[in-house]
Amino acid sequence: MNRLYGGLDQEHIINELNSSVILVGAEELEGEVLTYVKATEKNLEVVVRLYSEKIRGSGRSVSICVSADNYAERYDLARAYSAGLYFINGAHIESLKGFSSFEIDEYAASAGALKNGKRFIESIARQVPFLITREKAFEKITAAMMCCEFADLDEALEGASNFFKKTVDRDVRRYQQSTKITTDSQIVAHFLTQKKPGPAASEELESYAKRIFVEGGIHVLGDGLGKGKTLHVIRNVIADGILSGKKPTFLTHRIAVARSNAISDLVEQYSDEKIEGREDQLHALSLIVNKCDHERYKPHLAQSDILVIDEGSQVVRHLMQKGFTGDRYSVFHQIVSLMKTARLVLVCEAFVNDVLMNFIRLAGRPIHYTQGLTDYSGVNICLASVESTQREILRSLTANRRIVVGTDSRRIAETVAKIAKDRGKRVLLLTQKTKDYPEVRRFLDNPNVEAKKYDVLTHSPSMQSSVSITETHFDDHFCIFNGVVSVDDAKQFTRRDRTSEKITVGISSITTYCVERKGCIELFNASGDTIFDSISIECIRLRSLEKNNFQQWLSLSFELDGFTITRLGTEQDADAEAVKIFKNGRKEVKEKVIAGTVNAGIAALITGNEDRIKGVLSDSDYYHNHFLAVVDATGKAREDINENDIKFYNEGIGVPKIRNMACWVLDETDFEKMKSHDESIGIDSKHYQLSRRMISGALDRLGIDKEGRGIIHSHGLEETCAFILQNELNFKQLRLINTKINVKTERQRYSIVTELLKSLGLSKVRVMIEGVRVYKLCQKRYLQMLSYTDRKRHVELTVVSWDQAEKVQQIIECDLDLGIAMDDCKPITQKLRFDQKALNNK
């Protein structure tokens, strides 16, 4: 054995074997057949980090020795440094990648290394019903416990059984509480009798519409998916209202729903320029929620005796979202006022909950709640991971089967479209970007006929709930969810093609962690408007619970609603190949958007066109508007925009990152100017001062100044993480850190700092200083963000003659966090010189 780094915190001894796997531990091992590095318990983490860095790119791997006494701690260490686990009895997992925590716990149990049975049981219970049934789950628990030593195995199994049932039942109750409705004397309950779509169900809904039109009052229809609420109830109520001169108003949360084909011939659209100046003469108006307090629509609303709110729960949810565009308090009270005064109020929602009902209660009128009964037993929901779902999509394309793919991510929808087109398929892409393209409008107007023109239909939430395919054409149906939409919204995706009998639903397990505790939510979000807060706080809490438990709650929702549930198994190699294909497809889509936006910018500069295109009918129209959006977000002159600016904007949530960066770098005068400006245009600046304190407090401790200088040392890293832990709720509520904060290991501490820097649009790079590798801010990215937030300082820093060695260092270093290319991007004005032929053609 050779002793290395004697007297340092990296000290260890190592045998002379040269194997593909390097074992690191603090135990005495005999008869090793692998390279073994023996450290002390105190410096184990430092040595693991040392060898994980040494073997990077070499094809070798690091594993950590594990016993029953240290499994929990060393499991965390292996996760932090992407190492494997080597159990003392010889069992070995070379890489934890691709394994869930419960699968590794199960492996540890079979190796006799699992002592914390409760953790294992809880991790198994979290997979019910998404990954496994209750029965199969307990079989796994029993098998694992049989490998452990107990004084009384029967007693241990009984205790495990009780704890497992209690844990699963608790999770089910938490979900059910989110969907419950508290009834009292204000609510009068009714029930529909028809459970499945068909002539009888349509007739019952039409009869319901006639009855409530005569009765008036407030009516809430909570009927399930696919039975025709829009066509048979909402349309008839609006039509009868027009005939009787009651001037109906249709109110919803999304433009796509406001334009629903089921009612578009009856209602005028709020966005139609032809209605300007004659709003008081309209027979019926379709309006989205954030416009309902605008003065120009009040003449119609003052005369409207009928108010129809479609997707009521989503309307309330949309009103409480951070990115709501408009005066949310004014809109909130306007809707309450309309519910108080309208002769007839109809609120439709497939999935009614207490938040919606409590909002309607504010009108102070009796509520007639009609609950529809549904039978989904004929529909098979096949639950799967996102990777396995992508695998099956590729297989269907290869087998020349016609498919529908619904997803809550526009990027995934675009990637599916790209992959399918490359394989020669006829594709219709329906997203917020393409919703006005001629081919999409034709499909929305006549889905059954137009769908038959395509091999692949891929859509985002922009495909409104009232659009339904009722004639058989597509062979396979898929959904992919990343927790962007609500559980109820996700279920709507499964019924866009009413002919589908099986839908493969891929649900991501990756979530953005949200604060759940009501008291903490109230402290941060209370507005002083007690009526508004009575609804908003509970709505925010429900949304947080849903996001933190999205995979399990959506799976439970399908199960409790009576769908037939099956599960799709993983195929590690095939899934990995599918991930690679989708990743490459997404990269190509990004490159196309960047190139299209650059070309649109060049054309805009040549023509002097600074106006947004209202009716986006093609990709070129979209790229033009996208270029102007980049200009608005970054605050740069049009001629100074470059590819890095477009890349940054396309990463998502660019504006919040710019705001966070500004909160840190601006001096007090400019900071107050930013707050005043944002307040004047409706951006909520309530928490800017808190953001400023938290960001400055963290980066000061990290050793980074506002000029982007400083080295990240271990003591600064520890102080920063201690500060973040001390103010954890503030960092979570401000969305400065969107993951669970775990700082047990140095790698985890660096990960949290990376997350914080990312929220400012920044990143760190590793550099060599005096023979030691350390982290500092990526100056390229720092200057880029500074160009959006403090242009005066940006000019001062960029005109200064930088030390030549610093220049070379910046050019050759690569960004380890975001993979930003270090090559200089030329502004669009410089690109004009290099493509004169293209410009002449334009």
Q: Short summary of the structure?
A:
The protein has 5 domains: 2-172, no CATH class; 187-371, 3-Layer(aba) Sandwich (Rossmann fold), CATH 3.40.50; 380-511 and 555-570, 3-Layer(aba) Sandwich (Rossmann fold); 515-548, no CATH class; 644-825, no CATH class. It has 35 helices and 24 strands. The protein is globular, with a radius of gyration of 29 Å.
Write the layout of secondary structure elements.
Elements: E1 2-4, E2 12-14, E3 21-25, E4 35-38, H1 44-54, E5 61-66, H2 71-80, E6 84-87, E7 92-93, H3 101-110, H4 117-125, H5 134-146, H6 153-179, E8 187-191, H7 199-215, E9 217-222, H8 229-243, E10 249-252, H9 255-258, E11 268-269, E12 285-288, H10 298-303, E13 306-310, H11 312-320, H12 328-341, E14 344-348, H13 354-361, E15 367-371, E16 380-384, H14 386-398, E17 403-407, H15 410-422, E18 427-430, H16 438-445, H17 447-451, E19 456-459, E20 476-481, H18 487-493, E21 502-507, H19 518-525, H20 530-548, H21 550-560, E22 564-567, H22 572-607, H23 619-634, H24 643-650, H25 654-665, H26 668-680, H27 688-702, H28 714-726, H29 728-733, H30 746-758, E23 764-769, E24 772-777, H31 779-789, H32 791-799, H33 804-812, H34 828-831, H35 836-841
Parallel strand pairs: 3-4, 3-5, 5-6, 8-15, 9-14, 9-15, 10-12, 10-13, 11-12, 13-14, 16-21, 16-22, 17-19, 17-20, 18-19, 20-21
Antiparallel strand pairs: 1-2, 2-4, 6-7, 23-24
